[in-house]
Design goal:
The structure is a single chain. With about 120 residues, the chain is mostly beta strands. It is about 0% helix and about 55% strand. Strands 2, 4, 5, 6, 9, 10 and 11 form a seven-stranded mixed β-sheet that branches. It is elongated.
């Protein structure tokens, strides 16, 4: 399986920046896309940003222009650079990896999740 460990969360003032990192270990060859989700208090978990094997990215509308996502060539780390942070960005941020554990048809996918890292943006 794949294990994901996040780092970089913390407390930051509105307008500030943070960089979240996620390191994958285990059977990293299984990893397809990687990304970040977040869950704010009382809210459902939402997709923040995703990046494919070929570095195609997607962002939730609320972070476009403020966040960037990247992954290293080895495809075992993914980072989320967050700038111009807002109090609404406060959440636990979870690293996610979409896994394809076997070659099959239809294609079968699974997900790996980190335990989360807390980001608090104060006003």
């Amino acid at each position: 399986q794949v294990q994901l460990v996040e780092s970089g969360g913390g407390l930051v003032q509105a307008g500030g920046s943070l960089r979240l990192s996620c390191a994958a270990s285990g059977r990293t060859v299984m990893i397809d896309s990687m990304g970040w989700y977040r869950q704010a208090p009382g809210k459902e978990r939402e997709l923040v940003a995703m990046i494919s094997r070929s570095n195609v990215t997607n962002f939730v509308e609320s972070v476009k222009g403020r966040f960037t996502i990247s992954r290293e060539n080895a495809k075992n780390t993914v980072s989320l650079q967050m700038s111009s942070l807002k109090p609404d960005d406060t959440a636990v941020y979870f690293c996610n990896a979409v896994l394809e554990p076997v070659v099959s048809f239809p294609r079968k996918f699974d997900n790996a999740w980190g335990k989360g890292t807390l980001v608090i943006v104060s006003s």
